[in-house]
Design brief:
The protein is an alpha/beta fold and 313 residues long. It has nine helices and 13 strands. One of its GO terms (molecular function) is kinase activity.
């Protein structure tokens, strides 16, 4: 590949979901019809918000976030985002409560998780929440794929993509959920993301979007439609695909999983921060893998507090 593109001056604007995560870590199978002992924590979450926090944690100096929350938790989320170095612009919904996700995390080897999702206010972002001025000074727009799973926020995505195209601002998107993708439909998804220059799917999402069972084949096929595809593979690292070809295989960083919630968001945030700093996609993917490894050793989807130091330090 050619040399690094050089750093891009300006902010990263993330548009996406801000939710409250209730993380329940349990050992063994759930006991249906009776009690299962668990360690339960309430933490700030949401794929869009998590990405923004990890990008700031990974050193990008200006990260902004547009999201929608309920009156019930607006102040808390604002404080938590600001504490991570993110400049939040939270629309307070007068009717719907803040979205809530219950994360059931098995404490065995993989720390794999299952989500119960009440999107609440987070999927009620609409074109009225968008302003052209949001792109002032922005070097990249990143969209959470969860925005595609409701009619109001799909309309917002269309407006934001049109605005970014008019200003020449590159746009990235994380598909967010294989389950929701299946409901939306592959053809519809691919049409909705026309104009996106960077897609960051998981292996399951990429295979679903292409109908191909092999991860490398799926990443390569997606890169025929979208210029740059970074496939996140968890413990198997990441694939970098361009122009119908897998250009690089990036190994995962070593980790002892505690909770895999938000690992993909951590990868995306660190990847975007590193890419904006002028790195090639392969180097950015290595940083993404480092952030993902850090994330799975923590409970919840957010990075360490600032007192714990920057991830790249």
């Amino acid at each position: 590949m050619t040399g690094a593109p050089g750093p891009q001056a300006g902010a990263l604007l993330v548009v996406g979901d801000v939710v409250t995560d209730v993380v329940a870590r349990h050992r063994g199978a759930l006991a249906v019809g009776t009690d299962t002992a668990a360690v339960i924590r309430r933490v700030p979450g949401g794929a869009g918000a998590n990405v923004a926090c990890w990008a700031a944690h990974w050193g990008w100096p200006e990260v902004r976030l547009l999201g929608r929350v309920g009156v019930d938790a607006a102040d808390w989320h604002e404080r938590e985002l600001a504490g991570c170095g993110v400049r939040p612009r939270l629309v307070v919904d007068p009717e719907a409560p803040t979205g809530t996700v219950i994360c059931l995390v098995a404490t065995e080897d993989s720390a794999e998780r299952t989500f119960l999702t009440d999107s609440g206010a987070s999927m009620r972002l609409d074109p009225g929440d968008w302003s052209e001025t949001l792109l002032d000074g922005v070097a990249r727009l990143h969209l959470s794929g969860y925005l595609l799973f409701s009619e109001p926020s799909r309309a917002l995505v269309a407006v934001a993509l049109e605005s970014a195209r008019a200003r020449g601002v590159p746009v990235s998107l994380d598909p967010a959920s294989a389950g929701f993708l299946l409901e939306l439909g592959v053809d519809r998804f691919l049409k909705l993301v026309e104009g996106v220059d960077l897609l960051l799917p998981s292996r399951d999402e990429a295979c679903l979007l292409t109908g191909l069972p092999n991860a490398a084949d799926a990443a390569a096929e997606l890169s025929r439609h979208i210029p740059l595809v970074i496939m996140k593979q968890g413990a198997d690292g990441a694939l970098v695909a361009r122009g119908g070809t897998v250009r690089a295989r990036v190994p995962a960083a070593r980790a002892t999983p505690t909770d895999t919630t938000g690992a993909g968001d951590a990868f995306t945030g660190a990847f975007l921060a590193t890419l904006l700093a002028g790195a090639e996609p392969e180097e950015a993917a290595r940083e993404g893998c480092r952030a993902g490894a850090m994330a799975v050793e923590r409970v919840g989807g957010r990075p360490p507090g600032r007192a714990e130091g920057l991830g790249r330090g």
